[in-house]
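Box 3.1 — From sequence to structure: Syntaxin-71 isoform X1
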Amino acid sequence: MTVIDIIFRVDSICKKYEKYDVVKQRELNAYGDDAFARLFAAVEHEIHAALQKSEAASTETNRAAAVAMNAEVRRKKARLMDEVPKLRKLAHKKVKGVPKEELEVRDDLVLALEEKIKAIPDGKTSGAKHSGGWGSSSSFNNIKFDSSSDGNFESEYFQQSEESSQFRNEYEMRKMKQDQGLDVISEGLDMLKNLAHDMNEELDRQVPLIEEIDSKVDKVTDEIKNTNVRLKETLYEHIELSWFKRLFFHWLKYGMIVNMEKELSTSILWTLMIFSALCIISFHGFIVKFISPFFILLY
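Predicted structure (token representation):
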């Protein structure tokens, strides 16, 4: 655990168990119903703690720890400055048991407290400068701030410690790795962007082809429908032919066969003709076309 972690841990523990501090609670209860006095005492206590923290930061040899402590002092100063408007509001409230003279002086006390908060060193400023309008506050007349005549710090102030150098190197390494990762991500995003652009262009080029294919499919579908209608009509016309015509043509065919062969008898011819008639009536010529030739061969 580093020094910074220890400092933050101690502060959090102190704030957590602050309500069990008997001395502090006794001091707060001593003011009774005077909310201004309670808040004023609490702010003064916080100012004292901030001054101690600032002194510790000024004597800290570890640069990183000093920076962290100064940052905490600045946060505490900001919180204390937020309490100043509340003190101004409470300063004008009449409190039972508080003399009028003390109520009149409370505005000056709030101004002095505000200057005291601003004067806390936080690593950036050495404290607020006094203006001529607040010269009546005698509690700040003898305050002196150490500073060099030319405004320059000693060279040791800017020297880096070993730990701060390690922090700096680690920061640079992490920053470099993050930059590399961001570059890779940027390249990937550019590639995806180009792919999306190419896909959009290709889709735009395919749209006319798809429309043409759709039109051709519709045309072919219509042609198939028309062809099916014509085929159906043709089949119906063919089926509607009289079976007498078919019978006549089959008889003619078998008569020609018998005359050509001259070896078949008249009984065979009549047998084939009767068989063809029966087949035409029953199966519309299917059996005649494929089976009757076998009877001819048998005879």
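Summary of the box: Confidence is low (pLDDT under 50) at residues 126-157, 283-289, 294-299.
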